[in-house]
């Protein structure tokens, strides 16, 4: 069953990892997909081609989500290209891990800008379009680290916890206009990036998870399908953990 037939969706950071998984699953559910990337032009154009073969509209945009003006210009362009925006998924994110003692001011600021300020930029930019439509679903990619904290990730944890507070506030501000805003908190999701890690270490992480495996981009994408679709029309202001029971 196609749950997103005809919906127009914009995903930040769709060129690889979780964002790519979301783009693929959404296209299979009949959504038209606009997605962004920061620098991976080759993979982004390849994905645009792959998605377009599924009889939906797909388009890749190079845009820095951390830049306020670029986010505004992006939304203007996507609104022109797709007519409306039903769903915004703020997925773009980076890590610059270090102990507090060693973390530089630059690495703290960069992670906050790309992970948290981007969510403000994109949500503010899309707000007018969704207010006019009197409907919309905004999904923000937090992390179990934002819920629980993690040694060596003060910058990342602060950005991901900030996303949860931001999302709950947007849900309260825009609920009366039928605009919903929720966060997803993924646990350990296995992507190409984690494939490069030491197998014994990764197996140790898997063993510590109640469901005994790492998650896949599809696991996160399926949670996004729920929050983007009309199955969740009475769900807003929530944080959905997709972590195999890690935080239970
Ligand atoms: P990833 O594989 O590193 O992919 C990151 C994506 O974000 C890429 O498409 C990248 O584009 C894009 N991006 C980076 N900086 C950007 C910017 N300034 N503007 C626009 N796009 C930008 O990451 P991932 O593992 O899929 O993670 C996706 C999201 O889930 C992140 O927010 C992450 O914090 C969160 N998360 C991940 C995990 C996990 O285990 N993987 C767990 C919890 C939460 P380029 O390809 O052009 O660089």
Quick summary of this structure?
The chain has 248 residues and is an alpha/beta fold. 48% of the residues lie in helices and 15% in strands. Strands 3-2-1-4-5-6-7 form a 7-stranded parallel β-sheet, with helices on both faces.
Unique bound compounds:
NADP nicotinamide-adenine-dinucleotide phosphate
The total count of strands amounts to: 7
Structural class: alpha/beta
How widely separated are the two ends? 31 Å
Mean of residue pLDDT?
Answer: 97
Global Rg: 17 Å
Q: Low-confidence stretches at least 5 residues in length (pLDDT < 50)? A: none
CATH architecture: 3-Layer(aba) Sandwich
SSE sequence, one letter per element? EHEHEHEHEHHEHHHE
Q: Walk across the major sheet and give the strand order.
A: 3-2-1-4-5-6-7
Shape: globular
Task: Kindly report the name of the CATH homologous superfamily.
Answer: NAD(P)-binding Rossmann-like Domain
The main β sheet shows up as: 7 strands, parallel
Give a verbal description of the structure.
Homotetramer. By secondary structure, this protein is α/β, with parallel strands linked by helices. It has one domain (8-241): 3-Layer(aba) Sandwich (Rossmann fold), CATH 3.40.50.720. Helix content is 48%, strand content 15%. The protein is built from 9 helices and 7 strands. A 7-stranded parallel beta sheet has the order 3-2-1-4-5-6-7, sandwiched between helices. Helix 1 links the parallel strand 1 and strand 2. The longest helix is centred in the middle third of the chain and has 29 residues, at 105-133. It is globular. The mean pLDDT is 97. NADP nicotinamide-adenine-dinucleotide phosphate binds at residues 12-19, 36-40, 64-66, 91-94, 114, 141, 143, 186, 188-189, 191, 193. Residues 12-19, 36-40, 64-66, 91-94, 114, 141, 143, 186, 188-189, 191, 193 line the site of NADP nicotinamide-adenine-dinucleotide phosphate.
